[in-house]
Amino acid sequence: MASSRETWAGWSTRWGRIAGRELTTVAITMFGLLLVTFLIARVIPIDPVLAVVGDNARPDVYEKARLDLGLDKPLWQQFVIYIGKVFTGNLGTSVLTAQAVTEDIKRVFPATLELATLGTMIGVSLGIPLGVLAAVYQGRWPDQVARVIGLFGYSIPVFWLGLMGLLLFYAKLGWVGGPGRIGVAWQDFVTPVTGVLLIDAAMQGEWEAFWDGFSHLILPSAVLGLYSLAYVSRMTRSFMITELQQQYVIAARVKGMSEARVIWRHALRNAFVPLVTVIALSYAHLLEGSVLTETIFAWPGLGRYITNALLNADMNAVLGGTLVIGAVFIGVNLFSDILGRLVDPRTR
């Protein structure tokens, strides 16, 4: 019993230290993100007061708005006020929509989440098998095919690929839906609950709207998924080549274990530990890097929201969206670290 208590105490102490280090890292990173976004708002050559009152405002109106925004205070005090507003969920008001930026982000972020999630699923489901085959047949034709696909995914511009996809699969063949998140005929059939269209349509039994939404989603997700596939397959190949050279693989083959079992059950299982981080970072990159894809496909997500805000000098919306993307990236990275520790028995 005493030994059991000592084991539990040692385990809890170790994981407590790990949690403390992770939380400290997150706090420092978040502080840096807040500082960078605050300084960007002060450095860019856009007057936030004019964005609120307009170019033709009277001097007294301009001065009153300046005082209301707190721009008369010292820079450090403005930063403290900014941190307080952020942690209370106040990201300012969008000039473009005349609504709170927080409410705008709550409305558009689920669309980006839906797009990036399906893109990641496509990339992972195809990228891992492709990377494994490339490692097993290193230097042979499957490896060359994987390299070409990876090079294609990295090299082809997203805007060109998206336009060609729309031209071929929508305009010519009619296999997928066009720009937008759902057809005009189904706009009011699904009541937003979670904000994720496919989930809401399935929950409400609107299956025709579900499949119409899926037809609009599949092409932009495939465009994003190609980048994820290239990244995941390349990293899987690298990890698998390392694992296939380890002593335990040689020992398993000597014992007469089937090649398929050696590769998929043993080598891939050990390679999956670093792959967790790769997949998480790929997902985070798709969440933050879907600006061009959303613009081309008129997808009403966070990337398009930030782009429109930037074109209209709506800095509250731009900085609020940037802050949310940064926070999501930090959160996904933290989650991948925790999951990697849980998956890898050597950390327990």
Structural topology:
Elements: H1 2-43, H2 48-53, H3 59-68, H4 75-87, H5 101-136, H6 141-155, H7 158-172, H8 197-203, H9 207-244, H10 247-254, H11 259-288, H12 291-296, H13 302-311, H14 315-343
Helix pairs in contact: 1-14, 5-6, 5-9, 5-11, 5-14, 6-9, 7-9, 8-9, 9-11, 11-14, 13-14
Family: Belongs to the binding-protein-dependent transport system permease family.
Pfam families: BPD_transp_1, BPD_transp_1_N
Keywords: Cell membrane, Membrane, Transmembrane, Transmembrane helix, Transport
Structure, described:
The chain is mainly α and 348 residues long. It has helices spanning 2-43, 48-53, 59-68, 75-87, 101-136, 141-155, 158-172, 197-203, 207-244, 247-254, 259-288, 291-296, 302-311, 315-343. α5 crosses α14 (315-343). The two termini are 20 Å apart. The mean pLDDT is 82.
Shape: globular
CATH structural class of the largest domain: Mainly Alpha
CATH topology of the largest domain: MetI-like fold
State the helicity in percent bands.
Answer: over 70%
In total, how many beta strands? 0
Count every helix, treating DSSP H or I runs of 4 or more residues as helices: 14
Domain ABC transmembrane type-1: 109-336
Transmembrane segments: 23-44, 115-137, 149-171, 213-232, 267-286, 317-339
Protein name: ABC transporter permease
Subcellular location: Cell membrane
